[in-house]
Amino acid sequence: MALTGPAQVKAIGHPLRTTILQLLHERAATVTELAAAVERPKSTVAHHVDVLTRNGLLQVVRTRKVRAIEERFYGRTARMFYVAAEPSPAGEEMPGDFNDFEVAARESATAFEQGKLWGFLRHARISEDQASQFWDRMAELVDEFDRMPRSGETMYGFAIGVYPTDHPTLPTAE
Questions:
Q1: Are 17 and 51 in contact (CB under 8 A)?
Q2: What confidence score (pLDDT) does residue 85 get?
Q3: Nearest 5°: CA angle at 167, between 163 and 168?
Q4: Is residue 10 a contact partner of residue 97, using CB atoms and an 8 Å limit?
Q5: Per-residue pLDDT of the chain (174 residues; tens, 9 = 90+)
Q6: 47-53 — which CB contacts under 8 Å span 24+ positions?
Q7: Total structural domains in the chain?
Q8: Deepest of 74, 96, 111, 157, by most Cβ within 10 A of its Cβ?
Q9: Are residues 60 and 13 in the same domain?
């Protein structure tokens, strides 16, 4: 699902909301279950679930009656969310603080310290068309990772990207 509005992008920019979205990849859950998983007060989690719901990232997928209270199970509205490259219809600017690699760097620090971070960084002078084709292949890999059956006790992160740099290049050989 393309996130086209600043409010949607801002909604996923909070670490707790990102964690909630990750947890809901596995199955629908109640605010109580989410609060227990993240070890935060139910009121805090309820606020963040409400923000995600108002911005179209979560929805109530089922309910059940527990005593006199109706318990809501929330689920994601899409398996994958991405920030659309085009500006929002209202012409509003997207927040400048949304950076997947900043999140990945923060999340991976402990794995790096424990010698459990697997990563590569490569640079190549390629055409914009080649970069676009390569990105399409990486998007397929992201989709594969996203659809893997959930198992095990550890949540793994996966960061991937292609971006232009200001590295120097040799002139074209004559």
A1: yes
A2: 55
A3: 140
A4: no
A5: 877 778 888 888 888 998 899 899 889 999 999 999 999 999 999 999 999 999 999 999 999 998 888 999 999 998 878 776 555 455 555 444 456 777 777 778 888 888 888 888 888 888 999 999 998 999 899 889 988 888 888 888 888 888 888 777 667 777
A6: 48/14, 48/16, 48/17, 48/20, 49/20, 49/74, 51/11, 51/14, 51/17, 52/11, 52/12, 52/17, 52/20, 52/21
A7: 2
A8: 74
A9: yes
Cα Dmax for the chain: 80
Looking at residue 78, its amino acid is: A
**Nearest-5° Cα angle at 136, 84 to 7:** 15
- CA nearest to 64, candidates 73, 56, 55: 73
Can you give the residue range of the structural domain that contains 118?
A: 99-174
pLDDT at residue number 97: 46
Tokens 């990772």, located at residue: 145
Q: What is the CATH number of the domain that holds 22?
A: 1.10.10.10
